[in-house]
Specification:
Layout (H helix, E strand, L loop, with lengths): L4 E5 L4 H12 L3 E6 L2 H11 L3 E5 L8 H9 L6 E4 L14 H28 L3 E6 L12 H21 L4 E8 L5 H8 L2 H9 L9 H12 L10 E4 L8
Parallel strand pairs: 1-2, 1-4, 2-3, 4-5, 5-6, 6-7
Helix pairs in contact: 1-8, 3-4, 4-5
């Protein structure tokens, strides 16, 4: 894997950080795209020499082609992890058109635009692997996250469409739907709401929260040749939450 190159969007924290670290620790040169200079550079310093910071706000859709070109001029991209995303928690009737479009813009349109530009490079270089990050919100209904749910459902549909269209070019496209993962943000939220925490754990058959490394390990599998006959799949990594009762 030492000759492989990857891009991880939103790789400066949370699941993206764990994913970027997993790739870099295994010798994969990884471009970490983040919009905050200090946070992105600090993440790369923590991960090590294989991590390369790319300072860019993915809301700048028009600037994405030039940003990807600045990366691909240094060589081919073998792995793309579309991890960056934002959430909004509001009552359905309080969500404005601007709110909804903002989530779709970041969580869906930027994924499409980044993927489109990277695919151009992958086609020129004989293939690659794209891993999209979805959510349990695409698996079943969760209140107060209508825009986020819509964006993640679209990511899963786009994953399947991309997989079919790009397979003849040697490009595999898969998706991971994380369950409740133990991050600083989720731990704070659940610890301050014991009722919600009990509900989460009560419908998770394995009975505990996942680790960011669980998502990173799943991404790594899809990035490797061991998954060479796998494309168009959506893999829940959720301790059984999406099938729990």
């Amino acid at each position: 894997m030492s000759k492989k190159t990857a891009i991880v969007t939103g790789g400066n924290s949370g699941l993206g950080f764990a994913t970027a670290k997993k790739l870099c620790d295994n010798g994969i040169k990884t471009y970490i795209i983040g919009r905050t200079k200090e946070k992105t550079e600090e993440a790369c310093n923590q991960i090590g020499e294989n991590a390369i910071p790319v300072l860019f706000d993915l809301n700048d859709i028009a600037g994405i082609p030039a940003m990807i070109e600045s990366i691909t001029k240094n060589g081919s991209i073998d792995i793309l992890v579309n991890n960056a995303g934002i959430n909004l928690k509001k009552e359905f009737t309080d969500v404005t058109d601007e709110d909804f479009l903002s989530i779709i813009h970041t969580n869906l349109l930027s994924v499409f635009a980044v993927s489109r530009e990277v695919v151009k490079n992958m086609k020129e270089n004989g293939g690659g692997s794209i891993i999209n990050i979805s959510s349990m919100a695409s698996q079943y209904g969760i209140p107060k996250v209508i825009a986020y749910s819509a964006s993640k459902g679209a990511i899963e549909s786009m994953t399947r469409a991309m997989a079919v269209e790009l397979a003849p070019s040697g490009i595999r496209v898969n998706c991971i739907a994380p369950g409740f993962i133990k991050t600083k943000m989720s731990s704070t939220a659940l610890d301050n709401d014991p009722e919600r925490k009990n509900k989460v754990l009560g419908r998770t058959p394995m009975g505990f929260l996942g680790e960011p490394s669980d998502i990173a390990d799943a991404v790594y599998y899809f990035a490797l040749s061991e998954s060479k006959y796998t494309t168009g799949t959506v893999l829940p990594v959720d301790g059984g939450n999406s099938i729990g009762f």
